[in-house]
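Bug #77: duplicate submission created two jobs. Keeping one. Sequence:
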Amino acid sequence: MRLWPRSLFGRLALLLLLVICISQATAIFLFRQDRAALLARQFGDTKIVQLKSLRAALASADPSITSATLAHFGEAYQARIVPAGEQRAMGGRPQGPVLAELEQRLQEELGPETEIRVQPAQKLLWIRLQAGDRAYWAGFPLARPSDDAPSRALVWSLIALAVLLISAYLFARYLARPLRQLNRAVAHVGEGTLPPPLPETGPAEIVNLNRGFNHMIASLRQTEHDRALLLAGVSHDLRTPLARLRLGIEVGMRDEAEREGMVSDIEEMDKIIGQFLDFAREDRDAPTEPRDLNGIVAPLVERQRRSGRDVSFAPGTLPLLPLRATAVSRLVGNLLDNALRYGREPVEVTTRADGRTIVVEVADRGDGIPADQVERLKRPFTRGDVARTGASGAGLGLAIVDRIARMHGGSFDLVRRDGGGTLARVSFPQPELKPGA
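Kept job's structure:
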């Protein structure tokens, strides 16, 4: 069992809880000690005045004082008075610093012959008085602690403890909230997305940390923009000479086999440049519209079938989804090109609703992808084993698919298919229905 929390919030809350409990227990202990000392001193002051008066009354009384007279004095002074020597069991010597201090004060005020005895069973405090040439024992009931004051003190202590604990909890959450925000932002960066700027408020250390993180995100965003601009410029500039080169080959070359080979190479280069342009595009600013996913997939499948490729489509019953249609069309097209280039036909495309998720799957019958290579192939400019697939490319197709899927709040997975091949699955979240919709 782990008692020490793992999170900073848990550790801070536990530390504050321990400090508050220790301080509260110390305050209660000191309060009880001070209260007991105060009550003892008040008791001593009251009894000294009372005993002086009683001693004076006993000293001035008739020497042949009777039991009735002593009982009368006892009623007047709320004590039990017996002559010294008649009471055999007077109890034991006082124990504890409070009664010892009381005995010392009584001896200083009433004389050194003053003694104290305690009878716990009868709850009596016996004090020996010297009244003239006669000695008496005066038994006073021991003061019982008030039930009201401790209960009120306990209630108020519990209220104060609850207030302090709630305050400590809220304070710990306040301190840990910026760190949780930073943790989520770092996770977004690790997933390849740039989070919005963090608030630069709170303690100075958190402000400096968030300011540095925001500066880093701004630099990454500028780098991404510059990289996209570079790719778009280079791709655009290359397409013009490629078009002229292809035109020259079509017009001037007579060797059919050589001409077809060069045209194929030019088309491959054009596809790579097209991937550069697709990767450089920022579709995040494009508005989303309610679209039928089947209506986007079907024309792409039909185009491949008209080209003579063995591609089938099994559409499911789907609701309308908020999609960036151009970006999703690019996603499905890249999945089809990837399946036809690196896998083997037949290629099967399906769409279905899985709970609150809409799924589009593209499956081929190629050699499949090892599980440890899936995440690597989602990175830009990464290709599979060329010797195994026998194909080339820029390595941007799956990176584009992954980026568009995450742009729509979805996910992209590659899994091995039963019976051989690869299954590419893209999942889109279905939006929550608004009340009354």
